[in-house]
Amino acid sequence: MTATSAFRLNPWPDGEDWDKFVAGSPQGTVFCSSAFLDALGCTVDRWIFGKLQGPSVAVAILHNRGIPVPVSTLPAMYIGPMMAAGVDTLPAHRRHRLIPELMEALLEALSQSYPLLDLSFHPRFPDLRGVQWFNHHRPEQGRIALDLKYTARIDVKSAGAFPDYLRAIRQNRQQDHLKALNCGYVVEASTDAGILDRLHDLTFARQGIDRPQAIRDLIRPITEAALRQGFGELLVTRSPSGEPVSASLFLFDRRDAYYLFGATDPVHRKDGVGTLTMLEGIRRSMVRGLTGFDMVGANSPQRGDFKTSFNAEIVPYFTGHWQAPSGSTPPSHDGGSGNAS
Asked: Among 5, 49, 298, 337, which is disulfide-ready with 152 (CB 3.0 to 4.6 Å)?
């Protein structure tokens, strides 16, 4: 299939509510909200694609002065195509014809405007066959490489009361939690993004690796935007003397909470303070009445084991990457909303 006159790729219309679409889409998350996108410090083109009347798909494409910004380089997840509300309830015979047709045509249209596409598909994305079929009959134009990834997710809605949930997690996490409490550590909400930034730097230094540049550049802007605009909470664990020893940023939308950044002072690491901070974030997601708690990735052995120790289920999702063949030059684009973030 190819993009035809039956489908149109249009910049997000003036006056339309992007965030309302995101909130209603089964694939919409805080990462596609205007507030989060604006915190990334790049230009965001917002597109709507579909027929004039009927179901549609929206997508945000990020770039800096025309140079694409791959989602995979950012501290973010699920910035990718989002189906309109209601598509997931269509009869199967309609849904599984419509979605591949829409996706193949969408990717063809986007490839005419961007030299690179880097997308993160939400686990709830129902049908990726259209992504696989993109340029199927024109492989010289480049196919999309789909990469299988994993995150870890807690179904907090079904976990019961927090004490019940606590008894269900791995025993060493229960012991860490009790140890931290017995040592007098206390978790509180904070508005000081510098605490998280400093502890995050210490954590990477302990591991002997440099922090990715995107995290260095964005950890404070994202944290400050989340606190200022109400889509996140910074929790800080303090020692009995008041010293900040652990910090985590949790984001949330109307469905789920997300563990985006976390860091612990190496001196206090063995006192279970990281576990205490995480569990308080999970407890607060229960109080908020959210459905799930997303650990935001579980793709390395040590981090993956830490996250699943909180009784989180492994959930697969895909990222997709396409780059224009060498020598080809897609035409320049006017952009979508063109919001300079």
From this structure: 298
Output the DSSP codes for 70-115: -GGGSS----S-EEPTTGGGS-HHHHHHHHHHHHHHHHHHHHTT-S
* 297-301: long-range contacts, CB 8 A cutoff, minimum separation 24: 297/77, 297/149, 297/150, 297/151, 297/152, 298/150, 298/151, 298/152, 299/149, 299/150
For residues 152 and 293, what is the distance between their CA atoms, to the nearest angstrom?
Answer: 8
pLDDT in tens, the chain (341 residues): 344 557 889 999 776 799 999 999 999 999 999 999 999 999 999 999 997 676 799 999 999 988 899 999 999 999 999 999 999 899 999 999 999 999 999 999 999 999 999 999 999 999 999 999 999 999 999 999 999 999 999 999 999 999 999 999 999 999 999 999 999 999 999 999 999 999 999 988 888 888 899 999 999 999 999 999 999 999 999 999 999 999 999 999 999 999 999 999 999 999 999 999 999 999 999 999 999 999 999 999 888 999 999 999 999 999 999 999 986 654 444 433 332 22
Query: What Cα–Cα distance (Å) separates residue 307 from each residue in 27, 137, 153, 275, 296?
Result: 23, 42, 9, 10, 9
Contacts of 315 (CB under 8 A, 6+ apart): 123, 150, 151, 152, 153
Signed CA dihedral, 151, 157, 160, 163: sign only: positive
d(CA 289, CA 287): 5
Q: Strand pairing of 292-294 and 145-154?
A: antiparallel
pTM for this predicted structure: 0.92
